TrEMBL record:
Residues 77-203 form the C2 domain. This is C2 domain. Residues 11-23 have a biased composition (Basic and acidic residues). It comes from the Eukaryota. It comes from Plasmopara halstedii (Downy mildew of sunflower). Residues 1-10 have a biased composition (Basic residues). InterPro entries: C2_dom (IPR000008), C2_domain_sf (IPR035892). The keyword Membrane applies.
């Protein structure tokens, strides 16, 4: 009880001391003792709450759209290039040009027949896209092209190359397949057909001209043009192979023309023997018969001996022909290796001639006619052409 009363008295004194401003502080010993006594009370006082400034809220990440989360589509330049390429592939197609007739073509050589043909080229195409018709035999100044002369031409349209360029066709008419002398040429824009994907044939009249001649009118050409689905890559590659054969034929025709000119120059040198043969017909005929018998006998000997030897050599070539050829040059009579070499050379020439014949122009024209028949059928359209978008 005494302790409680003492504490109450000390509390009253402390309150009076704090309330009186004129009250002087007591010695340090008293203050230290009083502070130790007040410690339990101070400990019971509530701790002031310090409010911390709220941290700025983090922005919520933007959720990507469902299209971007799909596994089939990716962002970035590669995806953009891929999408552009896919869209261009869907825009690829085939430009069909059907050559019908030509009117009022000039006759370049009155002494020769004129067999005109038409070459159509797609400008700014990479690789170069072009095609030619077959010659219109005895067409003259007013030729006509039919299905048998392969008058329907196809040009591949590559949208990735031509999307920012105008679509223009160049028409060139030549007088003869071998001479390739230009009659006239012209250009025709078909941008509206390509942009609108017109599948219905549109008729055009192409007015031909030639810069080398003062008279600009070189006749006119009537054609039909439309747009269709692209040809599959395999058949496009086969078409390029056919064009290489066309280039080969043009080179062969040029060589034949040069050979003919050379033979004409040589024949002028032998004009006197020819005049002698014309004036002595009986003697020349007798000499021709003698030379014919000699040539036939030589050919018979060659067929009788060389051809069987060539067959045997071809069948058993890996086993003995190489050693025999090597030893025969040193031990056998001279005529045997010469005969074998001549036989091998003639075999090479015959295979070369056979290859030229099987890939000649008339054979290719017949195969192209059959191919056009197949392409126009329902099954052919599904097999040769890609599905349109």
């Amino acid at each position: 009880m005494t302790r409680k009363s003492n504490r109450r008295s000390q509390r009253k004194e402390a309150t009076t001391t704090h309330s009186d401003p004129t009250h002087t502080a007591e010695p340090s010993s008293d203050s230290s003792s009083s502070s130790s006594e007040f410690a339990p009370e101070v400990r019971n006082l509530p701790i002031p709450i310090v409010l911390k400034p709220a941290s700025p809220s983090k922005p919520t990440p933007k959720q990507p759209s469902p299209l971007l989360l799909s596994p089939t589509k990716k962002n970035g330049p590669e995806a953009t290039i891929r999408q552009i390429a896919e869209s261009n592939d869907t825009m690829n197609g085939t430009i069909h040009v059907k050559v019908l007739t030509a009117r009022n073509l000039p006759m370049l050589d009155f002494g020769k027949r004129q067999d005109p043909f038409v070459m159509v080229q797609l400008n700014n195409s990479v690789p170069k896209s072009w095609a030619t018709t077959d010659p219109s035999f005895h067409g003259g100044a007013n030729p006509e092209w039919t299905e048998r002369s392969n008058n329907e031409l196809e040009l591949f349209y590559n949208a990735s190359v031509m999307h920012d360029k105008g679509t223009t066709l160049t028409f060139e008419v030549y007088s003869d397949e071998s001479g390739d002398e230009l009659i006239g040429s012209a250009q025709q824009s078909i941008s509206s057909i390509v942009e609108n994907r017109l599948t219905k044939p549109t008729a055009f009249t192409i007015h031909l001209s030639d810069e080398k001649h003062s008279n600009g009118n070189r006749g006119e050409l009537n054609v039909e043009i439309w747009f269709g689905p692209p040809v599959r890559k395999v058949f496009r590659a086969a078409g390029r192979a056919f064009k290489l054969l066309d280039a080969r034929d043009a080179m062969v025709a040029m060589l034949c023309s040069m050979t003919t000119s050379a033979c004409g120059a040589v024949s002028d040198r032998f004009q006197l023997p020819m005049d002698f043969a014309k004036s002595h017909r009986k003697l020349s005929m007798a000499l021709a018969v003698v030379f014919g018998f000699v040539a036939a006998a030589a050919l018979t000997m060659f067929v009788a001996f060389a051809v069987p030897a060539l067959i045997v050599a071809f069948i058993t070539f890996p086993f003995w022909i190489i050693p025999v050829l090597v030893t025969s040059f040193f031990t056998a009579p001279l005529w045997l290796p010469i005969l074998l070499l001549i036989g091998l050379f003639l075999l090479f020439i015959s295979s070369f001639v056979f290859g030229l014949g099987i890939t000649s122009g008339p054979v290719r024209r017949k195969s192209a006619f059959i191919l056009n028949k197949i392409k126009h059928s329902e099954i052919g359209k599904r097999v040769i052409y890609e599905k349109s978008a």
